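Input structure tokens:
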């Protein structure tokens, strides 16, 4: 018996066409889930769609969607439900790195945009996904999983990152509130506080940042993308049903260093 078979379950992954999101989507596809990707870049969506279709027996869907736009999310979630029939798991993964400015140089526009993507975007995705999950529960089919991509910066301090840190700390608060409010429908909510992984976003950072991180992380290495596959499958599976409201660091020990 395969303890982590996700056949018959549908997972939605925002920002799933690259980086952490695509790594998690790979694991979900390999475990047999139907996978829907919502992301902004059409070309990257197409490449991810082709890759994921080769990994598992489940269906794969990729839709262009900006999580800063409520109507786009509503339309995309509707298309996912029309094509795949249900959504059992939602990975609110889409995010940006923030403006990268010092606190005296913060602009209202830069901070608002970071919050719009990293915090409000997840909240709006949850709004539309949980409407479906709650309706299902009322019809006798309870259950659902919300998993947010947060960051270790939500509980640590990093220079020139106050807008990003604040957006992810707010995401942790959203996670706890969602877990409490939605438990009556057997919907769980958790956040994964990722540390340093090599992605397109980190590739744009100052090389000194990667060097500093490599010295500070107790395991002395960045996170491995292959490991994210099993992590995603675990949180999408029934084996995580009794875990909710948690903000779990996934960082090689960075937050304790």
């Amino acid at each position: 018996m395969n303890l982590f078979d996700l056949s018959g379950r549908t997972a939605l992954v925002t920002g799933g066409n690259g980086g952490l999101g695509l790594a998690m989507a790979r694991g979900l596809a390999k475990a047999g889930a139907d996978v829907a990707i919502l992301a902004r870049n059409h070309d990257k969506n197409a490449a991810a769609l082709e890759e994921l279709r080769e990994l598992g027996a489940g269906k794969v869907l990729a839709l262009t969607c900006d999580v800063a736009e409520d109507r786009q999310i509503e339309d995309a979630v509707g298309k996912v439900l029309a094509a795949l029939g249900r959504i059992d798991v939602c990975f609110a993964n889409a995010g940006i790195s923030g403006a990268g400015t010092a606190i005296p140089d913060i602009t209202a526009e830069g901070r608002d945009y970071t919050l719009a993507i990293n915090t409000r975007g997840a909240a709006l995705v949850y709004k539309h996904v949980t409407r479906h999950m709650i309706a299902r529960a009322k019809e006798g089919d309870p259950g659902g999983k919300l998993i947010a991509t947060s960051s270790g910066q939500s509980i640590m301090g990093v220079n020139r990152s106050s807008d990003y840190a604040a957006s992810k700390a707010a995401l942790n608060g959203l996670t706890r509130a969602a877990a409490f409010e939605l438990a009556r429908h057997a919907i769980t909510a958790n956040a994964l506080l990722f540390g340093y992984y090599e992605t397109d976003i980190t590739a744009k950072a100052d090389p000194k940042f990667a060097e500093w991180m490599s010295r500070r992380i107790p395991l002395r290495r960045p996170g491995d993308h292959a490991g994210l596959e099993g992590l995603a499958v675990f949180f999408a599976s029934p084996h995580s049903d009794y875990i909710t409201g948690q903000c779990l660091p996934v960082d090689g020990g960075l937050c304790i260093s």
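DSSP finds eight helices and seven strands in the chain. The chain has a mean pLDDT of 95.
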